[in-house]
Structure to design on (374 residues):
């Protein structure tokens, strides 16, 4: 059976009471796990990254993320609460601090979100922790990796660090909402075969049935989808999330699909489910969602490549001739207004280098900014 994750994310908006209501909603809808995001704004964005439009007005995106920060005790309580309700606790860290704090509370899974696929310091820290667990004869904490706005090469680099034992991969489109017709779900089976891991989908489309059910027909083993108490509330992902009734419909349809596969056999069951979906959505739509299985950036996420992924940014304005220290560099999402920097793979090269020109706080770091190593 597919492992169904209800992505609560930051829809709780820092309220423990609302977080528990969201867990209850997800459990009632039939999920197997609930997922949270361990947010520290400074691990994700530069303060000068730009603005976001909310119902209450236009505010700096960095400040919006700061509003979503919670203490470690919040997540520890939510882990306990999830377990008390019979579901597992999944959580995404976004930097070294949040990862270290997350690992201290022993999550059931660590989730690496798509923009952190190239956060190599984060991946290395997690890999080192899992290696120490293995050396102590502990089962390494399982890892789920999303692969939106990425290339096969990006995925390969991440899995070279993390390994494949106890690692699952989620096909994803980093667009909100993501068009169903761009999902190319045949890629799920190809990703599983290429990398030797189980694979599934992280679905940001609005339809509660189409992508989740077809992903299972493509041998997906995980379905992740956002949940909210209301699409009208002000959570960052609430507009693309499913309300409880819709999430329950998704779970029901996924389980019905699995029942058909078990009852009729994989080939005949697949034909029957696709035939039913074609009656509702049309054969052309089903064919488009299934796609050709070739990994490529979806049209709706192409412009996000580089800006959503991690790159190196200056954390203060500096003058030519200064030597760059570790605190001067952030491994951040570029997002709205800043220039994209060099990839995180250049972090060690940059630290200790001497600037050839003046740079501004927030600028994306370019290798041409430096004249020599000291």
């Amino acid at each position: 059976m597919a492992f169904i994750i209800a992505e609560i994310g930051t829809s709780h908006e820092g309220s423990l009471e609302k977080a528990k209501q969201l867990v209850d909603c997800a459990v009632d809808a039939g999920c197997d796990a609930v997922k949270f995001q361990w947010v520290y704004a400074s691990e994700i964005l530069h303060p000068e990254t730009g603005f976001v439009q909310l119902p209450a007005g236009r505010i700096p995106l960095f400040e919006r993320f700061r509003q979503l920060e919670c203490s470690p005790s919040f997540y520890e309580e939510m882990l306990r609460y999830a377990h008390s309700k019979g579901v597992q606790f999944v959580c995404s860290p976004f930097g070294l601090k949040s990862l270290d704090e997350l690992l201290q509370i022993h999550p059931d899974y660590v989730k690496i979100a798509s923009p952190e696929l190239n956060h190599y310091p984060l991946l290395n820290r997690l890999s080192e922790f899992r290696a120490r667990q293995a050396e102590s004869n502990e089962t390494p904490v399982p890892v789920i990796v999303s692969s939106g706005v990425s290339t096969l090469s990006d995925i390969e680099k991440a899995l070279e660090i993390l390994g494949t034992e106890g690692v699952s991969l989620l096909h994803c489109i980093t667009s909100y909402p993501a068009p169903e017709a761009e999902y190319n779900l045949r890629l799920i089976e190809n990703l599983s075969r290429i990398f030797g891991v189980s694979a599934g989908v992280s679905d940001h489309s609005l339809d509660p049935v189409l992508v989740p059910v077809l992903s299972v027909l493509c041998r997906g083993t995980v379905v992740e989808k956002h949940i909210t108490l209301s699409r009208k509330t002000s959570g960052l992902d609430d507009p693309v999330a499913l309300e409880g009734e819709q999430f329950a419909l998704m779970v029901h349809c996924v389980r019905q699909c699995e029942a058909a596969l078990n009852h009729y056999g994989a080939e005949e069951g697949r034909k029957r489910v696709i035939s039913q979906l074609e009656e509702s959505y049309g054969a052309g739509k089903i064919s488009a969602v299934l796609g050709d299985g070739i990994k490529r950036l979806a049209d709706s996420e192409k412009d996000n490549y580089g800006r959503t992924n991690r790159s190196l940014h200056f954390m203060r304005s500096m003058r030519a001739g200064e030597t760059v220290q570790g605190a001067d560099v952030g491994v951040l999402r570029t997002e709205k207004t800043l220039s994209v920097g060099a990839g995180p793979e250049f972090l060690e090269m940059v630290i200790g280098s001497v600037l050839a020109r003046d740079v501004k706080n927030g600028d994306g770091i370019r290798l041409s900014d430096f004249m020599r190593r000291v």
Remarks:
- The chain has a mean pLDDT of 96.
- The longest strand covers residues 3-9.
